[in-house]
TrEMBL record:
InterPro entries, alphabetized: PduO/GlcC-like, PduO/GlcC-like_sf, YBR137W-like
Gene3D superfamilies assigned to the protein according to its UniProt record, in alphabetical order: Haem-degrading domain
Lineage: Bacteria, Bacillati, Actinomycetota, Actinomycetes, Kitasatosporales
Family classification: Belongs to the UPF0303 family.
Signal peptide from the UniProt entry: none
Name under which the protein is recorded: UPF0303 protein QNN03_24870
SUPFAM superfamilies in alphabetical order: GlcG-like
HAMAP family: UPF0303
Amino acid sequence: MTVKNGFTPEITPTIEELQAQERRLVFREFTAEDAWRLGSLLVELARERQAPVAVDIHRAGQQLFHAALPGATPDNDAWIARKRRVVERYHSSSYLVGAKARAKGTTFEESSRLDPDVYAAHGGSFPLTVEGVGVIGAVTVSGLPQLEDHRFVVEALEEYLSKSQ
């Protein structure tokens, strides 16, 4: 099995597995300090793997964290915005929204009829969900293939939540 940028390719997750991630990765609260710590964890992991990513955390329409690592480009910021808008609109991860369209034998672009220059249902943006409140924002990574972007965010959320809550 080939390892690239510290990531090992794995089998594509099912819709049920993706939904389970969203049910499991929930915060008790999400503060600006949480955004800083989660963002810093993502940057630390990306540096260890020499992953050429940009990282972004938004809450209620406000950018709380942003970093671009070596190899990331302005195009990654455009992808972040497009993927984040999918999370904000559908309250699901950008990868899950795309997977649901593919499972129906279509594409997100065809089924949603949304402007692909504004919305992208590609992996890498995950909802920030607060217990008893719902989706309040998104954490997004761009720079790797979409499944790796998704897995990277999920890994960081799992680590962060296991230590902080």
